[in-house]
Write a structure and sequence with these properties.
A five-stranded parallel β-sheet has the order 2-1-3-4-5, sandwiched between helices. The chain is 43% helix and 10% strand. The longest helix has 15 residues, at 233-247. The relative contact order is 0.10. The protein is built from eleven helices and five strands, in the order βαβαβαβαβααααααα. Helix 2 (48-58) runs parallel beside helix 3 (74-81), helix 4 (96-104) packs across helix 6 (137-148) and helix 8 (207-217) crosses helix 10. Mean pLDDT is 79; it is low at 173-183, 189-196 and 263-272. The chain is of the alpha/beta class and 272 residues long. It has helices at 23-34, 48-58, 74-81, 96-104, 118-128, 137-148, 164-174, 207-217, 222-229, 233-247, 252-260; strands at 14-19, 39-45, 62-65, 87-91, 109-112.
Length: 272
């Protein structure tokens, strides 16, 4: 019989596993969470497989999980983690289909870097243990988009059989407990598509510079990038200057256009 960790005493701190392939992000999140008396980080992971191993070893109260990681990505690992602990997605990935798939696979919340404060993150970690979901603006919009895609009823008078019978059918179907079919862990593949087919290796950006360029292209300000990457605004500006030099660009719009593979923009604006 597999070993099971006994329930956490009410006064014990929340035990968290942090999974992100960026060591700077992991360190920043760990420092932030461990600075709270009621939270402790019991393990860090660089990909989905390490997250699965750490979760089964430590039996945490919460798993913070990134989406895009090398090897086993967060979306693939998600259904293997949720039976053990609540999972809060904490990521830069804001694509609607990824948000929807994460929620479908059991994520208890979805936070996009740059859309929440440190206190809001801490509140989300505390709340997810009690089943209270937290979604930042992008994730909430993706969820609404999915709900709104349901076919609208036809115009006309109300059907005669509309009412309790339909309500009973609806309630019965929503209270079923659908089983998630997943492949063995050894067969996990990375289904997350990159948002652009452009060959970005030619720009020769470092991993950190590429990360910051993604955030620039998403429309973030220097202040938001600094908060998301746990670095100072001065460091962000230094990175942007090196990025502009490598992309032979003089503005955020021009750099983003080259990075995304679109036509160069006409507006010019220096980073500030």
């Amino acid at each position: 019989m597999p070993h099971e960790t006994p329930p956490r005493p009410p006064s014990a701190p929340l035990r968290v596993v942090v999974a992100d392939d960026n060591p700077v992000v992991r360190a920043g999140l760990t420092a932030l969470l461990c600075g709270r008396e009621d939270i402790t980080v019991v393990a860090q992971a660089a990909d989905g497989r390490e997250a699965w191993e750490a979760t089964h070893r430590h039996r945490p109260d919460v798993v913070l999980l990134d989406v895009r990681m090398p090897g086993v990505d967060g979306i693939s690992a998600l259904p293997y983690l949720v039976p053990v602990a609540p999972v809060l997605m904490l990521t830069y990935s804001r694509e609607t289909e990824i948000v929807q798939e994460a929620l479908r696979r059991g994520a208890g919340g979805y936070l996009v870097h740059g859309e929440f404060t440190a206190d809001q993150l801490v509140d989300a970690v505390r709340d997810i243990v009690h089943g209270r979901a937290h979604l930042t603006a992008t994730a909430a919009g993706a969820l609404l988009d999915r709900l709104r895609r349901s076919p609208a009823p036809a115009e006309g008078s109300l059907p005669e059989d509309l009412g309790n019978a339909n309500a009973h059918t609806f309630m019965s179907s929503t209270h079923r407990n659908p089983r998630v079919t997943v492949e063995p862990l050894s067969q996990m593949q990375r289904p997350v598509r990159q948002s652009s087919p452009v060959d970005r290796s030619r720009f020769q950006l470092s991993a950190r510079e590429a990360e910051i360029m993604d955030l620039i292209a998403s429309g973030m300000t220097n202040q938001q990038i600094a908060a998301a990457c746990f670095i100072s605004e001065k460091t962000v500006k230094n990175h942007i200057n090196r990025i502009f030099a490598k992309l032979h660009s003089t503005s955020r719009a021009e750099a983003a256009a080259k990075w995304l593979g679109t036509a160069p923009g006409s507006a010019t604006r220096e980073a500030r």
